[in-house]
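I had to read the description of the data format several times before I understood it. For illustration, here is how one protein appears when written out as sequence plus structure tokens:
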Amino acid sequence: MLRLPGRLALGSLPSKLAVVVLLFGATGALAARKNSEFCAKDPFNDICNPLRYIPVLWAAVLSLSLYFLVSILLTIQLYRYGGKWLLCLVIGAYCEGLGLTMRIPFRSNPHSTGIYIVEYLFVVLSPCAFLAADYILLGRITNHLNGHKHLKPINPNKIMRIFVGSDICTFLVQAAGGGLSTAQDSKLRDVGSKVFLAGIALQLASFAFFTVVYLMFFWRVWKHDAVIWNQRGWKSLYLALGWTCIMFLLPLWLGISAYVWFWPPKYLTDDNRITAPISSGDDIEYTSDVPVVAPIETSNSHLASLEPSVREKAGLVDMEKRST
């Protein structure tokens, strides 16, 4: 068995997921093909057709064209402004387009196990890459603005690990459900459909929690931190991130296309980076509209404790003589 270094463990994860999907998909599809004589002419009742329908040609061509167009535009933005940490977004867009492309040959070969596995792998895996890009971007924005305190009790450096980890788990659940849904046994198909829906529900729950964190940061900055709020450049990108949160629940293509215009490295520049502390402390009480600032002591006892030379330069000695 090939052992990979620790740093390459995460990079090998997509290949491991691909193997899982291949195994689940091949197991169910091959079981169905053993009894190909029972394949029905109606795609909905065809146990040999894992999709249970024949993709529409014009819809497949239109969708793959839109995804490849966005993929090319995102590649141009990556080349112009940099941002290798967003490669998951660009690669995911290409993979989604490739998966949709496989629906065209699937029309004439609805019983092909290989075509279905490739189509299923890329179409199901790609949204996980899009979500991972959003998770990474939120952590990048908070680090860029030095706004870690506004995400408490969540560590911004762990946002990507937390949410990407949940994405991987939900993807495995969906892969298992998709593999079982290709089985010949009707009971196994029903179990596979339920498992697949459970994976989607878990993924939506994870993304809903991320949306809450997104709104919490925006509200806290607007309410309690004028320095960050008045910093130019970041709010338009942050609103674009919110747009993708909405569109990921609706048309997925509209979500990723937002980054064609709002490419993050274009807005997160050194000119608007906040490196110095933005307040006197890291703890902010979110219980009132206006933060309470402790008064500065200016009593006579405090002035008397100063060195004589300092008091003389400040004019305190003359003031004391006049008062006596």
